[in-house]
Amino acid sequence: MATEAKIIDARGSFCPGPLMELIKGIRQEAVGVVLEVWSSDRGSAKDIPEWVARAGHEVVGNVEADNIFKIQVKKLR
Amino acid sequence: MTRIVLLGGGVGGSMVSNQLARQLKPEILRGEVEITVINESDTHVYQPYFLYMAFDQAVPADAKRPERAVLNNQIKLVVGHAERVDREAKDVVMGDGAHIPYDYLVIATGSRPAPETVPGLVEGGHIFYTEEGALKLRDALAEFTGGRVLVTVGVPHKCPVAPVEFTLMVRDWLDTHGFESSEVLYTYPIGRLHSLEPVAAWATEIFDQRRIDSRTFFNVETVDSEKKTVTTLEGDTVSYDLLVAIPPHLGQDIVKRSGLGDAGNWIATDRHSLLMQGTDNIYVLGDATNLPISKAGSTAHFQADVVSSNLVNRIHGGLGSVRYDGKVFCFIEAGNDEATYVKFDYQHPPKPQPPTEMIHLYKLAFNKMYWLSAAGIL
Ligand SMILES: Cc1cc2nc3c(=O)[nH]c(=O)nc-3n(C[C@H](O)[C@H](O)[C@H](O)COP(=O)(O)OP(=O)(O)OC[C@H]3O[C@@H](n4cnc5c(N)ncnc54)[C@H](O)[C@@H]3O)c2cc1C
Fold first, then answer.
1. B9 Cβ closer than 6 Å to some ligand 1 atom
2. All structural domains of chain B
3. Which of B44, B63, B95, B112 has minimal CB crowding within 10 Å?
4. pLDDT at B373
């Protein structure tokens, strides 16, 4: 996990949900920034990396603790 | 005297101020409390009607009332553009240089569609999220000669169900105006048709029945208005004859000018107390927060109950401990004179509800009852 990351606290988010919150972050932040999404939805550990790969960014961390999934994504373009 | 200033007199600002005016009437009459609403315009606009305006089922006057008539008589209304919030001086600086001091500030400035953030979208796309945009789209539909209607959804956006409702309504419009063979292509940013799983499942079925095509993982990066194509962040290029875009939204510029927000002008807000993070006298509600919940009038409504309860309690000497639980409720028009709804909060996911005619009738009635809601009565 990168040490410097902008936290997106999307716990308990059913709409828009953790992935849409990440897309919002990616759109508004600069290239090179690492975003760390917090999600209480198990599906995020899979659907966030899937979108990140399609959109050409990079997952730099993916951990779970106490049913909270923390996924770090670096904006590459 | 305690001065409460509401920045923004839309859904959230009107509800909070009206609830405060009723519950603090004795204090206001004794000159101990003053409530001021600052709003850009002297007209209150009910935004859901923009959807109907696009299909010529409503006209702008249907959606408007004077702001003064929406607000309780005990509330001071300042009509004008607020330039910035000065947190050190504890006042709001107006465009004309006037200063409006506060002890408590409630920010409910909403959000705005920002088509200029997607290159080519202003020239190539139609939006129905503003009155002007809805009327332009109405005129474009009147001149439509057939082909593909492409619906795109930007992130973030307010009213999460309007894109699905528009898609069903435009299919219906095409079928009844001689364009049965025209294609409707609905697209969505993530891997299913809607962020709410029950809505996604329902939309998959109903789109299939009504000949609506769809694509997922579709985030528009650029629009080529000459070639009439859109290209996505994920690398797809799709052509269109009529592009209807729900653009990505931004928080208002006053948030940026005041140094209160993040890169998208969203204000970091405590998810339970609704206080702006790091403050104890600035509340934020409605579309303006950075919270990971739907930007909807109903969200602003549930949050208004929390903010006004806590302000009344604090003025009466309490600590203001009521917590927002993340509650959101949305009606969804399903076509065929039926509607359904979804309800969820931070702890409880939405459950699917079958569409019924009763819910449709209730939604129609709610469009009229909105004014009672804004008045803090319903
Ligand atoms: C087409 C469409 C359909 C919708 N349908 C639904 C629906 O069916 N159900 C639902 O729940 N929601 C719906 N919504 C969403 C809903 O309208 C918004 O989420 C809601 O209005 C947000 O309330 P708010 O108080 O945060 O902001 P708003 O109601 O937008 O109010 C913000 C106010 O702040 C004022 N303001 C902003 N900046 C300044 C400034 N610098 N100085 C002075 N004043 C300022 C503005 O003039 C405005 O009056 C819909 C929206 C659209 C566009």
1. yes
2. 2-110+252-327 (3.50.50.60), 113-249 (3.50.50.60)
3. B95
4. 86
CA-to-CA dists, residue B52 to B126, B130, B164, angstroms: 15, 12, 14
CA B14/CA B7 separation, integer angstroms? 10
What's the full length of chain A, in residues? 77
In DSSP terms, A74 is beta-bridged to A34, A58
User: Hey, which residues 64-123 in chain B have their CB within 8 Å of chain A?
Assistant: 117
CA nearest to B91, candidates B75, B110, B72, B78: B78
ipTM of the complex: 0.95
The structure tokens listed for B158 are 């307010």
The CATH number that applies at residue A37 is: 3.30.110.40
Reported as a single tens digit per residue, the pLDDT across B352-370 is: 788 899 999 998 888 888 9
Q: What is the 3-state secondary structure (H, E, C) of B25-49?
A: HHHHHCCCEEEEEEECCCEEECCCH
Segment B170-194 shows an average pLDDT of 97
Residues of chain A positioned with their CB less than 8 A from the CB of B293: 13, 15-16
Instruction: Quote the number of domains for chain A.
Output: 1
Residue at A63 is within a domain: yes
Taking the C-alpha atoms of residue B353 and residue B337, their distance in angstroms, rounded to an integer, is 16
- Of A66, A41, A63, residue with least CA distance to B350: A41
Q: Tell me how far the alpha carbon of residue B100 lies from the centroid of ligand 1, in angstroms.
A: 23
What are residue A44's phi and psi, to 5 degrees? -60, -35
Residue B187's DSSP bridge partners are B215
B350, A14: Cβ pair inside 8 Å?
A: yes
DSSP A1-68: --SS-EEEE-TT--SS-HHHHHHHHHHHSPTT-EEEEEES-TTHHHHHHHHHHHHT-EEEEEEEETTE
Q: What is the DSSP letter of B268?
A: P
What integer pLDDT is reported at residue B354 of this predicted model? 86
Is A1 within a domain? no
Range of the domain at A69: 6-74
* Cα of A50 to nearest chain B Cα, Å: 9
Mutate to test the interface with A, among B192, B193, B199, B219 (most CBs of A within 10 A): B219
